[in-house]
């Protein structure tokens, strides 16, 4: 098992011009709680998560602002910073005290494609609660998936530079490798990389308490008027349920549950799963067919934030 300096996924920060509409969707319908707002930047928490916030929204041109991961302590933050700097990775800011909700200590850098990545430790734990039976709101942020114009190279970069491990691969006989599922802890994936026509957000996934809560949440979002682009079903890779919706900003968001836990990493061997097999995409066969139209929805708009650090 690889000794990793990254412990888990903390939050996803997004920018979009329609901030108020997006904020209403995330709080009124998706089930997150606003915990802070500074001018046009809003912080949203999940009631079941100890993270101070799991989504940050900012009013600006549409882009991924930050993908943030946790580290165990300041020594690990410094060790990771020094390792990346020695390998020539472009640092956005050096390790320092953070001023966002919960504080903490961390630094930011650009990944191979130019996304801004944050690593932090010593973030205050938020008072959270147990999600009740049949309560259709997220427990936590499960995983973030990005599109990359060079997915294979990006996968290798995350393995070499950040210690991520490959869990499984989706491939097509005609198109080659399509998605790499990457883990930084025992969860099957906290991050994944899809081969796309450009760099962008593929989707962000939110964990529900269980199947009952996932189904009730799926129905709740359908009644909100949001369009479900794919689902409900159950993936093969990760063995998790899925229901994908399009938010007001045109991002794909997923409700999921029961993501696989890899208990014995030393004996785990990544599978190569053929997307042309129905059971690869949806074990149950309940979801609409994955086709070119559905795939295009998750290509999203070109992210113009590559190698451009956000102002906050």
Automatic annotation (TrEMBL):
SUPFAM superfamilies membership: Glyoxalase/Bleomycin resistance protein/Dihydroxybiphenyl dioxygenase
GO molecular function, one term: dioxygenase activity
Entry keyword annotation includes Hydrolase: no
Keywords: Dioxygenase, Oxidoreductase
Residue span(s) of domain VOC: 8-122, 140-258
Pfam family, one: Glyoxalase
Domain of life: Bacteria
Cited InterPro entries: Fosfomycin_Res_Enzymes, Glyas_Bleomycin-R_OHBP_Dase, Glyas_Fos-R_dOase_dom, VOC_core
PROSITE patterns: VOC
Name of protein: Glyoxalase/bleomycin resistance protein/dioxygenase superfamily protein
């Amino acid at each position: 098992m690889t000794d990793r300096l990254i412990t888990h996924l903390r939050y996803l920060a997004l920018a979009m011009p329609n901030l108020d509409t997006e904020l209403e969707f995330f709080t009124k319908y998706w089930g997150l709680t606003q915990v802070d707002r500074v001018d046009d930047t809003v912080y949203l928490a999940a009631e079941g998560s100890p993270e101070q916030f799991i989504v940050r929204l900012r009013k600006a041109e549409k882009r991924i602002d930050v993908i943030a991961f946790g580290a165990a302590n300041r020594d690990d933050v410094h060790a990771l910073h020094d390792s990346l700097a020695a390998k020539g990775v472009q640092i956005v800011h050096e390790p320092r005290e953070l001023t966002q909700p919960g504080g903490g200590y961390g630094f930011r850098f650009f990944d191979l494609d130019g996304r801004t990545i944050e690593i932090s430790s010593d973030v205050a734990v938020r008072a959270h609660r147990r999600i009740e039976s049949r309560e259709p709101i997220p427990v936590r942020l499960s995983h973030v998936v990005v599109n990359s114009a060079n997915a294979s190279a990006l996968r290798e970069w995350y393995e070499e530079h950040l210690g991520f491990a490959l869990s499984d691969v989706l491939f097509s006989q005609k198109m080659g490798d399509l998605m790499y599922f990457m883990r930084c802890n025992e969860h099957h994936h906290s991050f994944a990389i899809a081969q796309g026509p450009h760099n962008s957000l593929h989707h962000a996934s939110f964990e529900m308490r269980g199947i009952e809560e996932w189904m009730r949440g799926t129905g709740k979002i359908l009644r909100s008027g949001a369009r479900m682009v794919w689902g409900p079903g159950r993936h093969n890779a990760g063995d998790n349920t899925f229901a994908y919706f399009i938010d007001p900003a045109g991002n794909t968001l997923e409700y999921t549950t029961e993501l696989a836990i890899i208990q014995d990493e030393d004996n785990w061997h990544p599978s190569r799963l053929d997307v042309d097999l129905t059971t690869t995409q949806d074990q149950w066969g309940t979801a609409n067919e994955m086709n070119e139209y559905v795939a295009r929805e998750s290509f999203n708009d070109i992210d113009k934030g590559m190698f451009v650090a956000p102002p906050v």
